[in-house]
Specification:
Elements lengths: L3 H6 L3 H7 L2 E4 L4 H11 L3 H4 L16 E7 L2 E7 L3 H7 L3 H11 L6 H18 L14
Antiparallel strand pairs: 1-2, 2-3
Length: 141
């Protein structure tokens, strides 16, 4: 989810908010929680849990926790992306560079490149290996 304040201050805020059928919230701070409760109707007692470190995404476990709101219903869900999904969704600077290094080995088969990158990223996360090492040398997947 985008920053709550940025969304609310947007000139098209009312249109965006009124068209949101599904809202997902992960780890939040107290200020964001208060905004989400007052502006989007999230239940405070549920979102309070998401202020704790135990609700931060875990790279080693390859999982994240979310509060999912649809209409008046709110559920706490855990998402464990596949290695492929992890690789496709990696968008931080060093992750992007690593993906490009691995993908360069697969000029005729980008899907195979994404599969390889996702496997290597997952393994690196689980072993606490720096992303900068992926694709630099043979990286055991």
């Amino acid at each position: 989810m985008t920053e709550v304040e940025t969304l609310l201050n947007s000139s098209c805020s009312s249109k965006v908010v009124s068209n949101l059928q599904n809202k997902f919230v992960s780890h939040v701070n107290k200020y964001a929680r208060e905004q989400l409760v007052s502006e989007f109707g999230f239940q405070a007692e549920i979102l309070e849990k998401f202020e704790h470190d135990s609700f931060k995404a875990s790279e080693t476990l390859q999982q994240s926790h979310w509060c999912w709101q649809r209409d008046s219903r709110q559920l706490i869900v855990t998402h464990n992306p596949s290695n492929f999904t992890l690789g496709v969704g990696a968008n931080q600077g060093e992750q992007t560079k690593a993906r490009n290094r691995v993908m360069s080995r697969y000029p005729d088969d980008p899907v195979a490149g994404l599969v390889d990158f996702g496997d290597q990223l997952s393994q690196a996360n689980k072993q606490g290996i720096e992303v900068e090492t992926i694709g630099v040398e043979d990286h055991a997947a």
